[in-house]
Amino acid sequence: MSTAGFDYVITRTLEAPVGQVWGAWTRAEEYGQWASAEEVVLDVRPGGAWSSVMVIPGGARVPLSGRYTEVVENKRLVVGMSVPGSEELVLMTVDLAADGDRTRITLSQTLGSVEERDQSEFGSNMLLDGLTAFLAAA
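RE: above sequence
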């Protein structure tokens, strides 16, 4: 895997314990609720496949799939996404750190272009907004 690329890192503190945040990322029913996704299938283990259909504002449906490359319960998920026309997975790292009853979450990615990075960073911020709202309502 090449290390040259365009990175982003987003860190937020969530008002929920680390186990609850981990569950939101790893239980299909919960993931679908906060990530605006349907038909969610998550096989959360190294090499395990995942798939979902993201429903974006306006109602368009975008099928997504990939596999997990690293899984450390309550600490780290490395999620690979299949990209049309590319053999390599696009990886997103989700790091969790307990902070008392709260959780510090860090999402990071390295992408091939400024445009891809900006799109992915925007999408990741939307994901975290959805997660924050979901946890607040739990």
